[in-house]
Amino acid sequence: MAWNQTPAAERIHIGFFGRRNAGKSSLMNAVTGQELAVVSGVKGTTTDPVYKTMELLPLGPVMMIDTPGIDDEGELGRLRVKKSRQVLNKTDIAVLVIDGAVGETKEDREMLALFQEKQVPYLVVYHKSDLLSETTAKKESALNEETAILTFQEKDARKEARKEYPILYVSSQTGDGIEELKNSLAAIKPAEEEKDLLEGLVKQGDPVILVTPIDKAAPKGRLILPQQQTIRALLDHGCISVVVRESELQQLLEKMEQKPAFVITDSQAFGMVSAIVPEDISLTSFSILFARYKGNLRQAVAGVKALENIEDGDKILISEGCTHHRQCNDIGTVKLPGWIRSYTGKEPEFVYTSGIEFPEDLKPFRMIIHCGACMLNEREMKYRLACARDQQADITNYGIAIAYMHGILKRSLAPFPDIATLLEE
Fold this sequence. Notes:
Blueprint: E1 12-18, H1 24-32, E2 50-56, E3 60-66, H2 74-88, E4 93-99, H3 106-117, E5 122-127, H4 134-137, H5 152-162, E6 167-169, H6 178-187, E7 207-211, H7 225-236, E8 240-244, H8 249-255, E9 262-265, H9 270-276, E10 282-285, H10 286-293, H11 297-304, E11 315-319, H12 331-344, E12 349-353, E13 365-370, H13 378-390, E14 394-397, H14 398-405, H15 409-412, H16 417-420
Parallel strand pairs: 1-3, 1-4, 4-5, 5-6, 7-8, 7-9, 9-10, 11-12, 11-13, 13-14
Antiparallel strand pairs: 2-3
């Protein structure tokens, strides 16, 4: 089915947060109608975020995320809490699950404040309503034992603040309130911006060449996600797409009766492809294309010029949005560092992160070089870009850095003249 083919990065991410034993896992199972997460009466059963892609009506394609308890203890517990907070950076809708028998706690209020700080749409759910009488369930949560010492002014302020969000009472045991919860999730779903990967670049009938190297790093039996999405976008535009390896590109160009309107290449083959493709044919990379699509092309082009000021010992963060088995000639850990050393003539220190790991403190780094972020959703990438911008850290991406070091970035940005001018500033 079509929804099952929706890339994870394009799905609405729904995160369930709360204290240990609040019932996050059982509630997520009840909402989805599936046993997605392990449920246990033992505190701290969920030790790592659990991700599950599925179709959830009336929302559509979603990514459900069950997180560790925000009140976990000890050194290992603090790491789990950190992972929960990291999940929030990619969460489009947050669900705060409160144990109805316990009421709102300090950790819950801290998480609510974090939702508001990060401007994440959220719902507050009082779980285990089947264990409470109707009168008990409707009590003001701020009046529990922990907050009884508050002044009247503080209590009034808290009551006023809580009016900003709806409170739902649900039970995963009886099913009460589950449909209301699903409808409420749909009601606060962020508005989807209609975006076009190839906007303004091609027209119907245009022949377009996609250069896709097949080496040890290429996934066996399939294409990587940016290549798949670009092919689909070309089909939507009614273009004639031709997929070829860089080793057959020259032969293809010689046999084509009609000059291609565009050539899009994998960043690793940028140098070779640029030498083969005539100057009168538009050329760019999947990485540059997706930087524009995700809204970070301008910041990435401005940030690449930091390569001119690298000194021995400077820290460079190389960050990938996905996790994969690294090959002997891996682009992030081998090729990029090699090109940077060769281009700058310096010996910087490289630091690597992958998946959801991304440092909150970017001050130690002279620059950040990020992957194309095909596996990260828009909120996660915006968060990372904002971190860099707020801390005045230069950030770019793989494709832009590679094109810059090979002296072909100006040509690769020619299809985007408003961005290309940044190289002259």
